[in-house]
Write a structure and sequence with these properties.
Helix content: 10-25%
Oligomer: single chain
Shape: globular
Strand content: 15-25%
Radius of gyration: 14 Å
Number of domains: 1
Strand order of the largest sheet: 1-7-6-2-5-4-3
Order of helices and strands: EHEHEEHEHEE
Largest sheet: 7 strands, mixed
Distance between the termini: 12 Å
CATH class: Alpha Beta
Number of helices: 4
Length: 151
């Protein structure tokens, strides 16, 4: 696990953009962090790194937003409104564990449990699964703890 400090929303998005440029087909990114921690900012940058120009926003009420127009499609999931793994599975979201593009899952701990070492056993193969935890340290400062992806 590696750690970075972001001092602004723009820096958090830039971190996501780096990941988007390196992302390959089938990548699943599990995001965790409290409300306002920067999860959606990261996804905005990720989309930019994939070459997606659409306006990115959190799919809290629709569960999934799909963005195309970049080098890979982006499937943006938000599990905030789902409380249990059973609710997530009954919503039919398992297909996004093997995406035909890149899937990023906000509130992923609701599906996979706490995002910590050792690697999650219920997710996709470790080579295509990355975890990121965002923690608010102040009004604009964030600690980003992540699986090393060469960033």
């Amino acid at each position: 696990m590696a750690t970075s400090i972001s001092n602004s929303a723009d820096e958090t998005a830039a971190f996501g953009e780096i990941w988007g440029r390196k992302a390959g087909l089938g990548l699943v990114i599990a995001l965790s962090g409290d409300l306002g921690a920067g999860k959606t900012q990261f996804v905005k940058g990720l989309a930019r790194g994939l070459g997606i120009s659409a306006r990115v926003h959190s799919p809290t009420f629709s569960l999934v937003n799909i963005y195309s127009g970049g080098r890979l499609p982006l499937f943006h999931l938000d599990l905030y409104r789902l409380d249990t793994r059973e609710q997530i599975l009954s919503a039919g979201l398992e297909e996004y564990l093997s995406p035909a593009g890149v899937a990023v899952i906000e509130w992923a701990e609701r599906w996979f449990g706490p995002l910590q070492n050792p690697p999650v056993q219920t997710g996709p193969p470790a080579g295509f699964f990355r975890r990121i935890s965002l923690e608010s340290l102040g009004e604009t400062e964030r600690r980003i703890v992540y699986d090393d992806f060469g960033t």
